[in-house]
Records
---
Amino acid sequence: MQSHRELVVEPIGLDAETLERPLKWAELFGNDHPVELEIGMGKGTFLLEQARNRPEVNFFGIEWARWFWRYASDRLRRAQCGNARTIRAEATFFLTEFVPEHSLDVLHIYFPDPWPKARHHKRRLIQPKFMPLVQRVLKIGGRLQVVTDHQGYFEENIEPSIRGSALTVVDYNTPATAGNGEYVGTNFERKYQREGRAFYALAATNSAK
Ligand SMILES: C[S@@+](CC[C@H](N)C(=O)[O-])C[C@H]1O[C@@H](n2cnc3c(N)ncnc32)[C@H](O)[C@@H]1O
């Protein structure tokens, strides 16, 4: 993918090599505000709109694809979102190695890659083995929010994994930054909405003791 403009990652985009494990959110953001983390932020539309509208919350985005990570970090930098940071990393690895136990208020996962071919289903992020990690990083009372357009992924993995976990399913919260009729307002949602696709949303809280 190409951009005609130079994408500047710093100071929003961080280098995992320079972070301590586990990291300390309060030191990273310079305050002890609640932290919400998005896995697979793509071009960063959700993170940008949330960070701009909710300065009392810290937002952290994980994105594996280098170009999307650079693009989103540059957008957040240009919008002067001092309450946002990003990392280019694989999410399971990053949550395991870097994110402190019970430290996130919300974990957002919007339009995760569906890996539609049967032989690739094992690559799907949300499956039963992922759920203990979600439980570990969410605060008690913290929330997981998921939206997908992929019925198979939702019915085969997302819903059974979440319902079968120690989390408690609750009503999905539509963010205030979502547009009319949107679940969340990401680039993929907007693209798929134009194609008339159906969406599937689920939320759960970490009520485990
Ligand atoms: C289908 S796109 C959705 C992007 C954005 N959330 C949206 O709704 O517009 C999925 C994104 O998640 C990223 N991704 C997929 N698996 C990931 C993982 N394990 N760790 C980090 N990022 C991941 C991909 O690179 C891609 O940018």
---
Amino acid sequence: MPAAQEPWLISVQDAATTLSPDRRTVIAFDLEGRPTSWFTGGDTFKRSLASEVFGRRSVDGDRRRWRVDQTAADALFDDAIRVAGAAREASRRGDPVVERAQAETLAARLETILAWTPETLAAERERFLGAYAPISILPPDQYGAVVLQATFGCSWNRCTYCSFYQGRPFQVRPSEAFDAHVDAVRALLGRAAAGRRSVFLADGNALVLSNERLRPIVERAGAVFPGRPLAGFVDVFSGERKPEAAWRELRSWGLERVAIGVETGHDPLLAYLDKPGSADEAAAFVTLLKGAGLRVSVILMVGVGGRRYAEGHLRDTSALLRRLPLGDDDVVYLSPFVRHDDSTYAERAAADGLVDLSESERAEQDGALRRAARDAVPGARVARYHIDEFVY
Ligand code: SF4
């Protein structure tokens, strides 16, 4: 007797369509009909707006991530289109694919998906590069944002471990160029913008600009992508130069969340990393932001400074956490430190004999920081932040 065919599972959501011909495959599409993710055979694949595809797999509790080569990406694109074609056939046959009320919407969405080919999907890369400079990093809560690059790079750009903006000097995008950028992003996202619920002002610390300069940027962002809260990165040493009244003003213009690379509460480690600021300044700055009514994402690194700094990092970061007035709306991110071989950090560590933590020491530090964050800030969310896992 032939095995019974599994029924299709199709979901027609406000901002996405998901197709699952069997329970081993689920493919999601944005409202422009472009595939955004595949779950297949236990692996997850995500496609960026630049049509790069990244795979992810859990092996013995470890997450592995890799960039999919073009041939494999084309095969995934092909598969997505094939599955959409099969969904259309099933729907035309009258299989109970979706409720009657959604049938028309599904038919239109499938036509949008089927208008793509692997070639036109791959060509999205060119459109992306026409709209954006490479996006180096985002905080996890902003992976689904509309990213607008008001500035390029980072105004400091000298932390020894950081390679996000190498070769990209800090620059403010002139206002006409910003307007053209916003228009290009709107065209690139198309209807898929509906699924992006916030606006992230990039790059590294766009919020360092004076409010006078930020005002037209915020207004333009709000005019083109209305109804979305704003977010951005800021560092302690640059953010603290703005008085609370200025942050309050930004709050009134729609800024909702600020992500701060605090990294550690251990001042000697900050100095070793060439990152300006101190634990006292971080505590004062977070207090100021909370006073201005903002939500805060505090980013701490796990494993940075290796064995030499481990004790001081844990002790002083735990102490710093106890001083931060964080609440339910705030997040503490624990970010596993990534040592790039070509970084100044790696060069210095090799020269002065700094030894990395072993896997188990790193896991121990992660657990201890997690407990410290939970104890210090009972309502706040504590989450992992893998800097190499973001896909925009
Ligand atoms: S402040 Fe942030 S973005 Fe700038 S160099 Fe340091 S870590 Fe990198």
